[in-house]
Write a structure and sequence with these properties.
With 204 residues, the protein is an alpha/beta fold. The protein contains two helices and 18 strands. The termini are far apart.
Amino acid sequence: MATAKKIKPAAKALHYTAEKIHPTAFIHERATVYGDIAMGEYSSLWPGVVVRADMNAFVLGKYVNIQDNSTLHSDSKRGITIGDYTLVGHHAMIHGCTIGRGVLIGIGSVILDDAQIGDGAMITAGCMIRGGTKIPPQALVTPDGSSIRIFENKARTTYTIAGSLEYVELAGRMQKGVWGPFSREEESAFLARAKEIWDSIKGS
């Protein structure tokens, strides 16, 4: 009696431009990614994130992190660009916009088509940035009912960049199964490095 041959499972197809993903980037197994996306070094996508670049190209710079359950999408007219060291918090919606370097997009915020967020700005939790809105560099933006308030030059950008550095370490820890808080020494080191990075960005 002939022995049945074992059939090797087909490799899982990737539905995105894997050749544009830097080798150091981290995509969690429970993130969903489709289409034309580029990710710079040490950038990361976390559980529940949906990136659907099916109608235009998305470019994520280095050290960018997109946190749990956030969504990135666009239409045929525009893509998405997110600058280096930007931190996108949980449950954010990013749609067809341009986000600068060292930017915080707070938890639950919505950034709509053709919005432009300047370098170092902080969009705090729950903000609605409507289409075409331009946020100045280093501005602090807070919700104000159905609108927003913009406080120029009030952002604490080094803390955003320090958070992005922490997420690089968190990605490495997760892949090793290491859990626990950062020490005070580690947090101080992140902040010191963040200050150097922000000074370099401002000077460029």
